[in-house]
Specification:
The chain is an alpha+beta fold. Helices cover 19% and strands 14% of the residues. It has one helix at 42-56, and strands at 4-7, 24-28, 31-32. The chain has a three-stranded antiparallel beta sheet, with helices on one face.
Amino acid sequence: MADIMITAKEVKGHCAAGLKAGDKVVLRGATISLQESDAICSFAFANIYPAVFAARLGKDLKELGLTTRTVQCIDPG
């Protein structure tokens, strides 16, 4: 399983988890690396999970059209 780094591009409104633009979450195997990650938001994970799952399976995110799309969290308004 490939490691994955997710970076917050922009935060509009108030993020209840405290995420700021540039914050990252590092996934190592099936776990979140707490030492390498900034704030972690369960709402954001609900929205990015399809892309994470596809990447874990070795799918080309560019081919799936997922690298040019913004994935938006439901929380900050």
